[in-house]
Amino acid sequence: MFRNKKENQENERKYIGIILTVNGLDYFAPLSSFKEKHKKMKNNMDFLKVGNYAVINLNNMFPVPKSQCIYVDISKESNPSYKALLSAGYRIITSLTERILKNAKSLYEYKMKNGNLTPLAKRCNDFKLLEEKCKEYSGKCKN
């Protein structure tokens, strides 16, 4: 999880997601807020629903040095409703970990094979470029 708190904001915004090992590197797959449009969407290689709380758009995953990730202890959250939301998201992600990892690896391979030749590949981050930038930033991406 990452965090970011803006001035006059009650809670820090937690960048919740899952750290995955893809192509030997640590990737962060962020959660996004669940929106009305997601009700009609079906899970697929680059999109997974996390209950009715959030979604994971694996096409937005990016490599990150683990040293830049901060574990957030949900039990220490002071706002009960925010704590409940974080806890629910965490439980569901934990139950989906195997599927998320399988989809992430498949999507990564698909993007590497297809470049920008398909609509799905075009939706994906440029994983190769992001890996280069991650390595530039930290000297190595996997700690």
Labels describing this entry:
single chain, 143 residues, alpha+beta, Thiol Ester Dehydrase, Chain A, 5-stranded antiparallel beta sheet
Write the layout of secondary structure elements.
Blueprint: E1 2-4, E2 13-15, E3 17-22, E4 25-33, E5 47-50, E6 54-57, E7 62-63, H1 80-114, H2 119-123, H3 127-138
Antiparallel strand pairs: 1-2, 3-4, 4-6, 4-7, 5-6
GO molecular function: RNA binding; RNA endonuclease activity
Keywords: Membrane, Transmembrane, Transmembrane helix
Transmembrane segments: 15-34
Task: Explain what you see.
By secondary structure, the protein is α+β, with helices and mostly antiparallel strands. It has a single domain (15-141), classed as Thiol Ester Dehydrase, Chain A (Roll). The chain has 3 helices and 7 strands; from the N terminus they run βββββββααα. The strands form 2 sheets. Strands 3, 4, 5, 6 and 7 form a 5-stranded antiparallel beta sheet that branches. This is Protein AbiQ. InterPro entries: ToxN/AbiQ_toxin (IPR025911), Type_III_TA_endoRNase (IPR053735). Keywords: Membrane, Transmembrane, Transmembrane helix.
Fraction of residues in H or I helices: 25-40%
CATH class: Alpha Beta
Proportion of residues in β-strands: 15-25%
State the end-to-end distance.
17 Å
Radius of gyration from the alpha-carbon trace, in angstroms: 16 Å
Shape: globular
